[in-house]
TrEMBL record:
This is Lycopene cyclase-like protein. Residues 197-211 have a biased composition (Low complexity). Residues 29-48 bind DNA. Residues 212-222 have a biased composition (Pro residues). Residues 186-230 are annotated as: Disordered.
Amino acid sequence: MGRWEPDARGRLMAAAVELFLERGYDATTVADIADRAGLTERTFFRHYGDKREVLFAGPVDVHDVLRTGVVTSTRPGVAPLTLVAGALDAVCALLQGDRERSRRRQQVIDAHDVLRERELIKLAAMADTIAQALRGQGVADPAASLAAEAGLAAFKVGWEQWMTDDSGGRDLTDHVRGCLDGLVGLAGGSPAPQSPTQAQATTKTRTQPVKDSPPPRGPPRVSPTHERPDATTASVVVLGLGPAGRSVTHLLARAGVDVVAVDTAPDRPWRPTYAAWHDELPAWLPPTVVSTTSPARAFATSEHELARRYCVLDTVGLQQHLSLGGARVVAARVLDADAHRVHLDDGTALTADLVVDARGSRPDPTLAQQTAIGVVLPRSSAPMLEQTWFMDWRRDNGTGPGDPPSFLYVVPLDDEHVLVEETCLVGRPALGFDELRRRLHTRLAARGIRLTGDEREEHVRFAVEAPAAPADPTTPTSTARMPGGRRPTTLRLGARGGLMHPATGYSVALALDVAERVATAVADGTTTASDLEALVWPRPARRVQALRAIGLTTLLRLPADGVAQFFEAFFRLPTALQRGYLTDRDHPALTLASMASMAARLPPSLTKIAVTSALPALPSTASVTRRRVR
Ligand SMILES: Cc1cc2nc3c(=O)[nH]c(=O)nc-3n(C[C@H](O)[C@H](O)[C@H](O)COP(=O)(O)OP(=O)(O)OC[C@H]3O[C@@H](n4cnc5c(N)ncnc54)[C@H](O)[C@@H]3O)c2cc1C
């Protein structure tokens, strides 16, 4: 696992604009563009449908930005044109980063009728989106359509001014705002006030500090819509916009639920390269968020071809797909949160029917961690990089049998690039980056791959255990944290909620799956907070988690020279049993069968470790044993 910054899209765009200006739009082919960018045509078509799209498909969906801009500018009594200004501010902030590049693109468009026509269609679509968003905020027609069209006219003129303004004193936002104010002046009105988005020049918003108000009364039903007395009240508040928080926010907003999402950096691009077994991905995810899918291999003490297909997600594509349109997004640090109340570092107190905590795992040295160092290499560097290696425990990394082991992980990022990582699966403490880097370089050299030193290096460090929350039923990562009868505080999701596999560190596919179940239940309108807890942690899943935690304890107790034998036993299991331990949460008996079957294949000294690791957890798993095994 690791992170990777794909730049194929940007390179293709730069190459296309260069060629369009050099040779003309008509004379430039997709093959020319791919060639100039140093990529293949296949890669081109993974990013763009045709050469025209290169000029019009930005890295972020402009319609999402417009919708978010309208929603985050909404305040009681605000004029429709002020909401339009907020939406346009957000788009300007997105587009004004590189004026020279925008100018070159505009030069190409201006020179071709077909492209000019496409540009006009794009502007018309933006006006439609704004009008729709205004209607969503209760602005009736014709005011919604008129305000949207007027806003787009101001945007168009402001854009043209910005393209020709070489003074450098005014950015795109200033020009568009100036045009909008001028437009209002023409009608004899006063200019639209500064919106919060203009103040911040981003799509984020900070709510104003208000006095604490009491939590909602009545039965703990999660109402999908809310009579909002002010901007600090919502049906659902989601804390954290990593994969877990963003997916649930996206799905809630899409279902029309009144949701506020809080993150210290809501717009920060995700960096890690997320991967999962293909059969773990929920059906609601479009295939476009998957970057590569391949058969995987493993090497413990012998080589294994794994039956399940492994996929690497397109991190950028996934984050974009999980758009936040329709949600109110707050950029702030959460100080503390309980079932209905959240305190932010700007003094704001948010209240909600439901608070979802998806703030990820805490950097806590007492928790078992996974660490890795990776490099991104051209796939053509060596034949071994043509294959996906889920785990390769061979000791050609300069270590001896007594050294704590680490394994090689190799996954294709796209047609041309591979992520190669030296990984410490779990440790308390885990191996450090210097040691992992040394091992990776030694291993690659042993396999004929010399690094130049210019490779992008990827760092991985995260806790595989959830932060301790004694007696909190939403984090059953060990028997000590199993249900204790206390009423839950927040609904915890993702790594925060113990939804990470404690023995492998995987959580993303499950987070996406659980997000859909939670969002559907909340949108239904009859769900209570405890229904949701049961949905995230059905009884079988709690038992499975307790069993998986035994796997973690075993791994942490294995002698260094026993780890490869342990995984040899695992990879010799039938696929259904491998899946039973890695993925299944519905059948504790299957998880147990997988572990028992594996223990039976281990040498006696390792079987003893596996069995004694299970002893402290037996009370919580006994019912499974009684019913299914005896
Ligand atoms: C480099 C790397 C690679 C990984 N690869 C994989 C993989 O291939 N497959 C897999 O399943 N898992 C992988 N993992 C493990 C794990 O699934 C990820 O860490 C995943 O990001 C967890 O998602 P999450 O949404 O639960 O938490 P996070 O992604 O950690 O998101 C938490 C969010 O909460 C915000 N936040 C935190 N504290 C506060 C606060 N006080 N106030 C406001 N906001 C706050 C953060 O800004 C962040 O946006 C990887 C982890 C790393 C680090």
